[in-house]
Amino acid sequence: MPELPEVETTRLCLAPLLVGQRLAEVEIRAPKLRQATPAASLLQGLTVQALERRAKYILAHLDDGSTLLIHLGMSGRFSVFPHQGVAQTPTRLSKYPKPPLAKHDHAIFTTDLAELRYNDPRRFGLLLKINTADLATHPLLKNLGPEPLSPAFTPKVFYNALQGKTTAIKPTLMNPTVVVGVGNIYASESLFLAGINPATPSKNIILAQCTRLHAAVVKVLEHALTLGGSTLRDYQQPTGEAGHFQDEFRVYDRAGQLCLTCGTPIQQMVQAQRSTYWCPSCQPLKPTRGRA
DNA sequence: ACCCCGACCTGAGGGC
DNA sequence: TGCCCTCAGGTCGGGG
């Protein structure tokens, strides 16, 4: 499910239920996800001091000098269930009473406010406890590029990252050393918005195109974030509500349907073993002059 | 240093 | 109904 808007939506929903709260009970049911999971005894009793996001990771800073690194993989999600009588958080909490534990509920965190369940059918996700002091040099984090919604991500920084790259721009957009948080949906959507063909070699993107693509990435991610991300199949916000950006898709998952801008059928191809969607008319392969 | 590809998993959906 | 194939929002590590 999770690209930046979905992960950030998840973080925003979890934060009021976790920050400042003690993990009174922790149950770890899967010994291994992408990597071995930490024992519950290493987490239980600790207090969450802050909940941050870096790329598609959620970082729960704990009061023993460690951080729980959380990744949702392809199919991970949280569900939250407030305790009865607990004042509602700013987000409406729709699922109550809580159902029995489900298949693939791999971790359960209980605070004074709520029960939070981490579920991930495909187990590409991650729960990893590391020393907070080691975060910057940790192999999973040290090579990450700029956050797309931060001032560090500028057209010039982006342009420089494309130089020398023969790889097509679409898989490059998904390369986290270039920019983080952009996955398969938002890569296709951003390229459509910028009018750039996804097969264009990255190094052939001229500065003007790069500036448009930079703006498109920011716009698409921000728009998706305001709509709670995209719900395909089973993704949901921790409250159980769906996101709504899927109703705004211009190309993703629309193969054969007509382009909403020009009426040309949307095309689908495979790049780096992932589906890419694009409009051959709005996103011509040859660089065209004068397109808005 | 870059680039490509397989691997890691489960489940849903389509074709026969 | 059931089997078999393909596909799915991500990332890592090995080899060229």
Account of the protein in words:
With 292 residues, the chain is of the alpha+beta class. Helix content is 20%, strand content 20%. The protein has helices spanning 4-18, 155-162, 169-173, 184-194, 207-226, and strands spanning 25-28, 48-54, 57-62, 66-71, 77-82, 105-110, 114-119, 126-131, 267-271, 274-278. The strands form three sheets. A four-stranded antiparallel β-sheet has the order 1-6-7-5, with helices on one face. Strands 2-3-4-8 form a four-stranded antiparallel β-sheet, covered by helices on one side. It has a two-stranded antiparallel ribbon with strand order 9-10. A hairpin with a 3-residue loop joins strand 6 (105-110) and strand 7. The radius of gyration is 20 Å and the shape is globular. The protein binds a DNA duplex (16 and 16 nucleotides) through residues 1-3, 6, 34, 56, 71-75, 104, 120-126, 140, 164-167, 171, 174, 176, 183-186, 229-230, 232-235, 272-275.
Helix content estimate: 10-25%
Q: What oligomeric state is this?
A: single chain
The coarse silhouette is globular
Strand content: 15-25%
Order of helices and strands, N to C?
HEEEEEEEEHHHHEE
Largest sheet data: 4 strands, antiparallel
SS-based class = alpha+beta
Distance N to C terminus: 32 Å
Topology of this structure?
Layout: H1 4-18, E1 25-28, E2 48-54, E3 57-62, E4 66-71, E5 77-82, E6 105-110, E7 114-119, E8 126-131, H2 155-162, H3 169-173, H4 184-194, H5 207-226, E9 267-271, E10 274-278
Antiparallel strand pairs: 1-6, 2-3, 3-4, 4-8, 5-7, 6-7, 9-10
Helix pairs in contact: 1-5, 2-5, 4-5
The structure holds a DNA duplex (16 and 16 nucleotides).
